[in-house]
Amino acid sequence: MKNSNKILVLGAGRSAGYLIAYLDEYCVRSGRSLCVCDRQFGSLKSVFGISDGVDFLTLDVTDKESLWQQIAGAELVVSLLPPTLHVLAAEGCLHHCKSLFTASYISPAMRAMDSQVEEKGLLFMNELGLDPGIDHLCVNAMMDKLHTENSEKLEEDQWRLVGFESHCGGLVAESGDKSNPWKYKFSWNPTNVILAGQGGESVYREMGKDKRIGWQDVFAEAKTIELPGVGVFDVYPNRDSLGYEKVYGMDGVPTLIRGTLRRQGYCDAWQCLVESGFTQNDAFFDEEVTSPETAFQWITGYENQSDWIDEQLAYRFAWQVDRLLQLEEKLAFLQLGNSQYWAANGLLENWDWLGKSPAQFLEHLLLIQWRLEEEDKDEVVMAHILHLENGKNQKKELISVMCVEGESKDKTAMAKTVGLPLAMGVEVYLENEITEVGVRLPWGKVWYSNLLPELEKFGIRFIESERFS
Fold it and tell me: Counting Cβ atoms within 10 Å, is residue 27 exposed (0-12), middle (13-18) or buried (19+)?
């Protein structure tokens, strides 16, 4: 199976830098070679100090013959391709009997390969990035520690899990740009941010009741959460919180919520955009839309942004004054229907209105307003909360919080926390007698016991605390 010494990396996008740099160093130590394939590589090599020993190969992964040729000569394949393209790599790996590592969710197409992958003795490791990825590792370690401590206690003193929360957010560090009241900038796929929550209901469990929230109401259902040492955030529910119930060994737990973190007030303002139609991706501008003003009118039905904002505030008149002021500031910042702003920032150049969706309109604008500048640093915050009770009716929360700040707009916390776990997982697999086969995610002591200490060396660490109630 492992008849080559070449690690093949497919994709050199935003999340690739730290992974390639780590694997570069590992290959030097282990006598392996590293080949990175993509259509273009930008400044990746110079920004991350990649050695001359790494082979950068221009490749179109949709060219099956060329892709399979590269896979055939590899010891192991790492895919950082867009999730929809992982299956192309997986098919090649299956054909040539190569194990595959990705940071993406296990798709139905990938899961369907499980029996074939297992039969060939391969490991297709998925969900080994940030979220999913580091969350699995941390939760696994927390649950194992809880079970070990319970085994040493009398039954009445043992802590029983009655609730679980796991939240993560890619944010902009508050030490950066103070002029953006949203306190958010793009550090990963912008389209995914614009379409957040869409594609189905958000499903989670709270106080014993399974809840389903339509995508139009996801941000309206956001809650406020305080995380020790890092502050207060909005959190809105992810698409499927219950999908990991069995994997995590939490069958029937009364509360199980996985969510996305944003700075306080973000969800109020984003809900206004959702309700007004700015995130629609299934409606398209006609010939009447020829400018930011006419696009704004087409989407909202209002003549100008000022009237629209007044209506948003009036609709929420019962809110506290400071909350309304924050909402007004965020909406006014967007310049949604301001042709002068669009022209001054080059947004009208090579931009054809016909056939564009409101979501594309919003993304086109936010790519300017929410871009990371040279002085900006992004930030990743992740938290896990175990809600516990014992036989004495005592209650407490075990809280584990990670906060990582990026180094620059190129060397982001998002790239670090997505890329490093995947790279380290490759090393663990190649350097240990891993017998796990099939389509899997990183669950088991061999993964968290090796990866969490290694991640700490790069400043990716969790701080644990307890909160009694």
Answer: buried
CB-CB contact of 37 with 10 (8 Å) = yes
pLDDT tens for residues 337-356?
999 999 999 999 999 999 99
Task: State the average pLDDT for the chain.
Answer: 94
Percent share of the chain, pLDDT over 70: 99
Band of residue 176 on the pLDDT scale cut at 50, 70, 90: low
Statement: residue 175 has pLDDT above 80: no
